[in-house]
Specification:
Elements (H helix, E strand, L loop, with lengths): L2 E7 L2 E15 L4 E7 L3 E6 L2 E5 L3 H13 L7 E6 L4 H6 L7 E6 L2 H10 L12 E5 L2 H7 L5 E7 L13 H9 L1 E10 L7 H14 L2 E8 L7 E8 L9 H8 L7 H7 L4 H10 L2
Parallel strand pairs: 6-7, 6-9, 7-8, 9-10
Antiparallel strand pairs: 1-2, 2-3, 3-4, 4-5, 10-12, 11-12
The structure holds spermidine (SPD).
Spermidine (SPD) binds next to strand 5 and helix 2.
Length: about 280
């Protein structure tokens, strides 16, 4: 009998046939499972929601990271909130300008399990520029008196249950507090199809805080609906000012992102244009 892992999300169900369960445990915060899937290789699920897989993780991690990093001017200090599989910090640390990347992850259990079973995703854990801290990201951005950041990346879970606070206005405002003037924040902003309300509400919340807010889109095959969004936010108008020379140098190492993808990703389908226009009414 084949064993299937499945995610049920907003009235849809995606199942991955598995050949082996590599890790199954429960941390203080959530259920953590890592399994070998036939179609996408090793995959991580938290509370029965697919987070990443070896064969499709590059779409998500490259798109969360490089649009912000390549429109920031010489980013030296980067903050990642969440991202326990290590894919986002791996992409951040491709950038030679980065002097320090602080990653605030609430669940040490996720990092430990991913270090052991998904080392092919988290290839930068030993980079001396990386400072991993197990703490609540919300407390950190609200209370930290550390030097501010050039770029902040929010690599959270879906805004369902405990993840909901990562989409709150209060949290976004606290993140902005930790950005240098003109700094850039980018976040995963859900499927614009199945989480339409969350997607547009997020745009609205960010628009109250930042002068420039631009969603962008790409595929993530194992996420519900397959089409995913991220959002770029800053007080500086620069979302299309991709540093092509820097992007070209990185392109060899990337599997999805390049300067052309960057520009195309910010193109808005009509349903997005109309929804954003409605926000301004
Ligand atoms: N529907 C799943 C959304 C999860 C977004 N974060 C994934 C973490 C990968 N580093």
């Amino acid at each position: 009998m084949p064993l299937w892992y499945q995610e049920t999300f907003q009235g849809t169900r995606l199942a991955l046939e598995t050949t082996e369960t590599l890790y199954s445990g429960r941390s203080e915060f959530q259920k953590i499972e890592i399994f070998e899937s036939k179609a996408y290789g090793r995959a991580l699920a938290l509370d029965d929601v697919f987070m990443t897989s070896v064969k499709d993780e590059f779409f998500y991690h490259e798109m969360l990271t490089h649009p912000a990093m390549l429109t920031a001017e010489n980013p030296k200090r980067v903050l990642v909130i969440g991202g326990g599989d290590g894919g986002t910090v791996r992409e951040v640390l491709r950038h030679p300008s980065v002097e320090q990347c602080v990653m605030i992850e609430i669940d040490e259990g996720v990092v430990q399990a991913c270090k052991e079973h998904l080392p092919m995703i988290g290839t930068a854990w030993d980079d001396p520029r990386l400072d991993v801290r197990f703490a609540d990201g919300i407390d950190y951005v609200k209370t930290s008196d550390e030097e501010k950041y050039d770029v902040i990346l929010l690599d959270g879970t879906d805004p369902v249950g405990p993840g909901e606070v990562l989409f709150a206005q209060e949290f976004f405002a606290a993140c902005k507090r930790m950005l240098k003037p003109g700094g850039i924040m980018a976040m995963q902003s859900e499927t614009p199809i199945l989480m339409r309300d969350v997607f547009f509400e997020t745009q609205g919340k960010l628009r109250e805080l930042f002068a420039e807010v631009h969603p962008y889109f790409g595929p993530v095959p194992i996420y519900a609906s397959g089409i995913w969004s991220w959002t770029w936010a800053s007080d500086r108008k620069a979302h299309l000012d991709v540093d092509v020379a820097r992007a070209e140098k990185l392109t060899d190492g990337c599997r999805y992102y390049n300067a052309d993808i960057h520009k195309a990703a910010f193109t808005q389908p009509n349903y997005v244009r109309r929804g954003l226009a409605d926000l301004s009414k």
